[in-house]
Amino acid sequence: MEAVTLAFSADTPPLSVIAAAKVAGVSISVDAGALPSGSPPELRFSSGLSLHGVNTLLRYIGRVSSLPNLYGTDAVQSGQIDEWLDYAPIFSIGSEFENACTYVNDYLSHRTFLVGFNFSIADVAIWSALAGIGQRWESLRKSTKYQNLVRWFNSISAEHTTLNEAVSAFVGKRGIGKSPAPSLKSKEHPPKQLMDTNNSNSSSSFEVDLPGAEVGKVCVRFAPEPSGYLHIGHSKAALLNKYFAERYNGRLIVRFDDTNPSKESEEFVDNLLKDIETLGIKYERVTYTSDYFDVLMAMVEKMIKQGKAYVDDTPREQMQKERMDGIESACRSNTVDQNLAMWNEMLKGTERGKQCCVRGKLDMQDPNKSVRDPVYYRCNADPHHRVGSKYKVYPTYDFACPFVDATEGITHALRSSEYHDRNAQYYRILDDMELRKVQIYEFSRLNMVYTLLSKRKLLWFVQNGKVDGWDDPRFPTVQGIVRRGLKIEALIQFILQQGASKNLNLMEWDKLWTINKKIIDPVCARHTAVIEEDRILLTLTNGPDKPFVRIIPRHKKYEPAGKKATTFTNKIWLDYTDAASISQGEEVTLMDWGNAIIKEIKKDSNNKIVGLIGELHLEGSVKSTKLKLTWLPDTDELVHLSLVEFDYLIKKKKLEEGEDFLDNLNPVTRKETSALGDSNMRNLKQGEVIQLERKGYYRCDSPFLRNSKPIVLFSIPDGRMQTSLNN
Description:
InterPro entries: aa-tRNA-synth_I_CS, Gln/Glu-tRNA_Ligase, Glu-tRNA-synth_arc/euk, Glu/Gln-tRNA-synth, Glu/Gln-tRNA-synth_Ib_cat-dom, Glu/Gln-tRNA-synth_Ib_codon-bd, Glutathione-S-Trfase_C_sf, GST_C. GO terms for molecular function: ATP binding; glutamate-tRNA ligase activity. Its main location: cytoplasm. It catalyses: tRNA(Glu) + L-glutamate + ATP = L-glutamyl-tRNA(Glu) + AMP + diphosphate. The chain is an alpha/beta fold. Helices cover about 30% and strands about 20% of the residues. It contains 21 helices and 33 strands. The strands form nine sheets. The protein has a seven-stranded mixed β-sheet, with no helix packed on it. The longest helix has 16 residues, at about 230-245. The chain is globular, with a radius of gyration of 31 Å. Residues about 175-205 have low confidence and may be disordered.
């Protein structure tokens, strides 16, 4: 039988993998400390093959286990197990630990196992995540706070006693890796390259290595152009750079690629830095390509003198056609003196100079068109946001990027795979500049359905007043989706799940919002709202003669959410849709109060409901009623709300190449509904996330200021199929 070794770093033993192997009867030898700190665990087979990453290893063990159904009984259960494997790391985030406990505790209220009716690696993963916390979890086990979770945990422990052996060996009082077993070795090896970075089954997809990287010597850069705000696509690049810098104990530089003064501004610089901070990205320093303008000009002048570049005055359209057809420009044979004379005209910004550009003399016959004499410099008379009108010429990204990468000591330049054809150009320019080699590492661009990520197209919406600004909730910018109600933890989880794969990703928003719901639901406060239009008054004939108030939790299962005051009156407001669903004589449940029997339904001449008469039946069982209704007291203390829903800006899931986005605009992308809310909502803070019971999740965009101005609440998607506003 093939020998299998589990290798991992001494400070992060993969408890779930070790535990799963024990209960599954999979024989592995353990090589603790075989990998440097931060490395993903590896299963090494005697054949020379290997697997990498906690979740990949758990799936493998589930498939080869001697226990039946450890990886589910069918494909659906395997998918459910994968979701729990993705969820397990949340327990290790200190601020999210109790939220996660609450979520799983509620989930287990009527379940013995996490998936189906069998013990699975989902149970192993969550059990190990809790056991790996150490003393904090042990203290909670002794309390009554999470009874379902503790019941499940104790049951698993009793049924599979070998799990506790793994805990004894690798978990100290302060948690996993804090007090390692005496047998753990401390030795460092260079990280091995992941064999299959395209493994679509791996949910911890960032557990990959940089080719040729050395611990302590890696330097990466995140280089946005300051011509817009950071969007979800940029976030992937930013977080991937962050990951590799931390993975190799290296450096991360934030560099603004400010080579086009016509599009850039300090507003964009300031907001990009704000967004980078929002993502939790720590960097060594901030630099600008404009810091290198003088040396870049000196470099291009040197290359002109060496015959590696020339000045071309061919009209732009003709130049583009010649590049496509592989036809050399007539200016390619200019003498050095002719080129320098035209270059000087460019430097002065004369009319003659504005007709020219500098091109690299590479290879006009190369099948890769990016190598066909690319443009290095162009004239631009617009003032630059940092250096004003000092320069009349600016380098292109293609020329500046390799130069600054090499100059700043970048070891690995991370670029999305859409630039793949330009990699040869990047390396050729570096060679012509006679600069040190920089390794390009590709990853796939993150694309979202019904979403435009082009900053030029997003700018059109801003300039034409189609949105409120770059932080509009309909925008895919970090500020936009956060304003919509997305938690940054959800965005980070979502992007980490996509990983560094080179496969093209067209992702659904539903998956991101589902992750977000799992974060906000266990902790967000509950409030009540009734749609203002056509609301119906229910008169309770035996209701309280005088209004009275009870103090109840804002979240029944999360005490830190605080308390709220609920007023009880003999007249209460219901949504018209709820009133229309009631039959005369029916017993219904008024949430947070009790049952009531509807004695009479009043209608006008058009058969439209105008009022209800009922009586309280508080001794009735809430289990026996079909309708559980939200309601508001008929008092002057209610607050006015504006509930805002959003739709996608474009109506097509994916625009094909050549399609104009202007032909695919959604006519209606924002809808406001007036509502009344409970008086406690006067205390909502801007940015606070709540649940309006039976209506959904909302983020407070404009809090209470005065009675005449409504509180503005933005609807937060919950991952279910979104209803279009245009139907």
